[in-house]
Amino acid sequence: MPSPTFNYAIHAISSTDSPLLLLEFNHSAINQIRLVNDNQNITSNNKVYSKSSFQINLPNQGEKQNPTASIAIDTQDVIARAIQQVHGAIDATVSLKYIMRSTPDIIENSYTFNVGNITLSTTINITLTFNNLLDLPFIKQNFRPENAEALFI
Questions:
Q1: Could you report the per-residue pLDDT of 115-148, keeping only the tens digit for each?
Q2: Residue 43 and residue 20: Cα distance in Å, rounded?
Q3: Which value, in Å, is the radius of gyration of the alpha carbons in the chain?
Q4: Which of 46, 63, 102, 137 is 20 to 30 A from residue 153's alpha carbon, by CA?
């Protein structure tokens, strides 16, 4: 649950303390890539996040399609090489975490996505997906007279 300070700062036009977005690119074949959407490196929970510039495009809510988000990261050699090493980033995940600059060890909110598609050009574009819970069956068992007699009396 985000703190009141975070809620105020994320909606404020100007604030003395600013929220930062951390990005972690995870794949079993490479070391974790950690970025912060800021102009300076930051340490959070004893992990150093490298300064970067990236933009998040949130999911649209169209009918009959799974919601997807995307990230556009300014091209950096380290990230581009790592993505090429994992050959399409199969089974890769991206974690996004919000922190406050004044309290970098407190994770205010976090999200984890599966990597859907990656394209390299002047920016690194990563399509993010997540398991669509609406497509999963809600009831594991069908109730019929054969297996739930009490319901049909």
A1: 888 888 888 888 888 766 666 666 667 777 887 7
A2: 12
A3: 20
A4: 137
17/112 Cα distance (integer angstroms): 25
Instruction: Decide if 91 contacts 26 (C-beta within 8 A).
Output: no
Angle at 119 between CA 84 and CA 98, to 5 degrees: 90
Domain at 4-152, CATH class: mainly beta
The answer to whether the beta carbons of residues 20 and 101 sit under 8 Å apart is yes
Q: Distance between CA atoms of 67 and 130, rounded to whole angstroms?
A: 8
Token duo for residue 5: 């300070």
Q: Which residue has the tokens 């300070």?
A: 5
Q: Which two tokens stand for residue 11?
A: 């909606």
Sheet of 54-57: strands edge to edge?
42-44, 47-52, 33-37, 19-26, 93-100, 109-120, 123-129, 68-74, 54-57
Q: Any idea where the domains of the chain sit in the sequence?
A: 4-152
> What does the pLDDT look like over 50-84, one tens digit per residue?
998 889 887 766 666 667 788 888 877 677 777 77
